[in-house]
Write a structure and sequence with these properties.
Strand order of the largest sheet: 2-3-1-9-8-10
Number of domains: 3
Number of strands: 17
Radius of gyration: 24 Å
Number of helices: 24
Distance between the termini: 33 Å
CATH class of the largest domain: Alpha Beta
Helix content: 40-55%
Largest sheet: 6 strands, antiparallel
CATH superfamily of the largest domain: HUPs
């Protein structure tokens, strides 16, 4: 896992690449890669690549980046962040075709694969990645991001120079990117608690969306292509073909995600996802896999404390286990750092920050997470609540118009004694995008002028059109639970969970791998999800040979709780209202204000 950056002065009137700017961008990402840094510049200074290294595969100097293809003309040059889990198989196949390799790294495999296949290379990769490749012969820059967006990649284009990096704040640190606000990014944050792709808080900076690649030439011509879309698999009719062997699919993914030249640990909670992975990890690796559980002083002795059950699982699978408890003092001490390393504002990720810190303290560079299981197998209550709401309200004639009138009349007083969302129940609950926003939303659209300037709120809503956009996303998917799965995968998981895992892990130079967020796993299991006899959370929990304890199997799903609201109350001396209070604190810090103290 690393940090990457690139500058491409493609316009004939653009000044050459400023070495100081690229250095400043790279310096900002030092925690992403403390094991080394590297730079490469084209002979005419029209292009520059930078890299911060966290050495995971091929720890020797031969794995250093940026890397140039070891050929006579050195046509291709790369800076890359991520891991390619099938690189051994790809390398073996290319060697049989006559290709020669001089390193043991997956980076060189990427270069050779691009040499052979061009942009089509992305469809052969199993892993998480954000990469930039310079083609010196064609004078073109190629950027790509993994199918689900595990690894981030942002770019800014002023019409003369393209800038790209792993972090928004890194691009800003270079000093050449304009900082005008992007209303859609600000509105999106307050609607959902995270900034929706491709927006950021800045009009000049965009995210390369998950599952996309972009190629830009010397004259500024560009092509952006989506190479992976989870929708077709979920929109396809449910056939009668037997489902994939769930155990073998998950074992295969676990084995792939343990590929590394450093120890790989495991985040362990009391949920079905991480405990199932612990059981499978014991089969793949034997006993002694390092596992880490995060607990909170505020929950000790209560039902929501996951530590006792997680420790029971650790004993069962004989992991090398560590438990770390976090309290008010830990939060206070880390408060400024959390807001500093959070690349884009988010209402979540604090738990990941602390468990990643614990893993780092145990000497780990890599840890596996059960993230993605709920999206794949339908573990959230949204899979029941959203279809039920739409099913009840959508048949009512003119429900949208009646609902809007009800909301306008009731919102001012209804929010005084219940959730503000209640006022929009009839207006939004009759269709999929609105019902999903009701369930996942932080603030509702009619509340935005409480937290944003009115003009910004209106401009952001006009650009984002959140309900319409979500409705269009699931159009063509017939099965209700699959609709929700598509929304959770492309919205909550992509914009919130995966992004939080990246910034919170990288804050401690820890690579977080997600075996359940894997293209091959998805393609094999998607045809069977949400149909009778198909894969499910309970079936996933039955895949380890050594069965999970009944205390885990029968435990009601509670979600992973974290007492941020209590911690903020103690810090400020006033009552903050849960995630909304935290959201405003984070937003204030992201916009250069002074965080609550």
């Amino acid at each position: 896992m690393c940090g990457i950056a690139a500058l491409f002065a493609y316009h004939s009137e653009a000044p050459g690449v400023a070495h100081g700017e690229l250095q400043a961008i790279n310096d900002h990402m030092v925690r992403r890669g403390p094991d080394g840094e590297g730079f490469w510049y084209g002979p005419d200074d029209r292009v520059g690549l930078a890299h911060r290294r966290l050495a995971i595969i091929d720890l020797s100097a031969t794995g250093h980046q940026p890397m140039s293809l070891a050929t006579q003309n050195q046509r291709y040059h790369i800076t890359y962040n991520g891991e390619i889990y099938n690189f051994h198989a790809l390398r073996d196949g290319m060697e049989q075709q006559g290709y020669r390799f001089v390193t043991q790294s997956d980076t060189e495999v990427l270069l050779r694969l691009y040499e052979r296949d061009g942009a089509d290379m992305v469809n052969r990769l199993r892993g998480m990645f954000a990469l930039v490749i310079w083609d010196a012969q064609d004078q073109a820059l190629f950027l790509a991001r993994d199918p689900f967006g595990i690894k981030p990649l942002y770019y800014a284009d002023d019409g003369r120079t393209l800038r790209a990096a792993s972090q928004v704040k890194a691009l800003l640190a270079g000093g050449a990117v304009e900082r005008s606000p992007e209303p859609a990014g600000h509105v999106g944050y307050f609607l959902t608690g995270s900034v929706p792709e491709p927006y950021t808080l800045y009009k000049a900076i965009k995210a390369l969306p998950a599952g996309h690649w972009m190629r830009i030439g010397a004259n500024g011509d560009r092509k952006i292509t989506r190479y992976f879309d989870p929708k077709p698999a979920l929109a396809a009719p449910m056939g009668d073909a037997p489902p994939a062997d769930l155990r073998q699919v998950l074992l295969d993914s676990m084995q792939a995600h343990f590929i590394a030249d450093v120890p790989v640990g495991l985040f362990l909670s009391a949920g079905l996802d991480s405990t199932s992975l612990a059981g499978l990890a014991a089969e793949c690796q034997g006993r002694g896999v390092q596992s880490i559980t995060l607990g909170f002083d505020a929950f000790k002795g209560l039902a929501m404390d996951e530590v006792p059950l997680a420790e029971e699982v650790a004993r069962l699978y004989q992991t090398d286990h560590a438990t770390r408890r976090i309290g008010q003092n830990d939060f206070d001490a880390a408060f400024d750092d959390i807001l500093d390393v959070m690349d884009q504002p988010s209402i979540d990720g604090v738990n990941t920050y602390f468990v990643a810190r614990a893993a780092k303290q145990q000497g780990l560079k890599v840890a596996l997470s059960g993230l993605g299981g709920d999206e794949l197998f339908g573990g959230y209550d949204t899979f029941a609540q959203v279809p039920a709401l739409v099913g009840k309200l959508s048949p009512i004639p003119a429900i949208d118009s009646l609902g809007r009138a009800f909301r306008l009349l009731s919102a001012p007083w209804l929010s005084a004694f219940t959730s503000p969302k209640a006022a929009g129940l009839f207006e939004y609950g009759s269709h999929w995008g609105g019902a999903y926003l009701l369930r996942r939303g932080l603030y509702m659209p009619w509340e935005l002028d409480r937290v944003l300037d009115g003009d910004m709120a209106r401009a952001g809503m006009a650009e984002l059109q959140p309900v319409r956009r979500l409705d269009q996303l699931v159009d063509g998917v017939d099965e209700p639970r699959r609709k929700v799965g598509l929304l959770e995968t492309t919205q909550y998981m992509a914009n919130q969970l995966l992004r939080d895992a990246d910034w919170a892990g990288m804050a401690h130079s820890l690579e977080i791998r997600v075996p359940l967020v894997d293209r091959l796993v998805f393609e094999q299991l998607a045809p069977g999800v949400h149909r009778a006899g198909g894969p499910s959370k309970q079936k996933m929990a039955a895949t380890p040979k050594t069965a999970l304890p009944a205390s885990i199997i029968n435990r009601p799903k509670t979600g992973f709780a974290i007492p941020v609201d209590r911690w903020l109350e103690e810090r400020s001396g006033t009552r903050e209202r849960g995630f909304r209070g935290w959201a405003q604190t984070v937003y204030q810090a992201a916009n250069g204000g002074t965080a609550a103290s």
